[in-house]
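Researcher: Re-running this chain for the archive, since the previous output was lost when a drive failed. Same request as before.
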Amino acid sequence: MSRRFFDDQDFAAGQVVELGTAASHHIGKVLRMAEGDAIEVFNGRGGEWQARIQSISKKAVTVQLLSFNADNRTPPLAVTVALPMIKGDRMDYAIQKATEMGAARIVVLDTERCEVRLKGERADKKLAQWQAIAISACEQCGLNIPPVVAGVESLKSWLDSELPGQKLIAHPGEQPFDPGTLLRDQPLVLLSGPEGGFSDEELDAAREAGFTSFALGERVLRAETAPVALLAALWAWLG
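Model: Regenerated structure tokens:
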């Protein structure tokens, strides 16, 4: 597979385009690719373009777009993953792996037992960082439509918002989930908790909002592991 790069601009087969700063830096400075090398580019609007590097300068990389491939490799079920803020690079891991596993949207929540709190400018900077991590994960895994990373929002506020009809909340000690109840043509939201778990009040609020509680097994998963395991189980359930 050719190396893949995201660039947020409109593309059309046959064009010669100058890539943006991030893609140009990665191609020219980090990977030190050469003129004539084959690459793939995508813009998050669907599909990808086969391209060839035409020129590399100190400031930008120019490529010629050769052909279009409409395949997005997107899972058939649109899944929103909602997870708490997690300390350190473990949050980066959760965002990266949830993207690789096919999350359509990722929402970062502030819960009672979160390990870290972010507000204002710090939260905005972190969201931009997490969005970049999701895009990089798409470059690696072959997805062409990166999930939107949203938040940081309180769990209560999020539960009061308009959510998909199918809602699952992972909580240790609950009954295993019956995958036969899933509707393949309806969006789904998966909610997982912080290291300390949800409080009783949060669990009650989630259930009142229509969430079904379930457990993957007898073990208690770490906050950054749970979303990835949930998505893996979901795709296994759906075949």
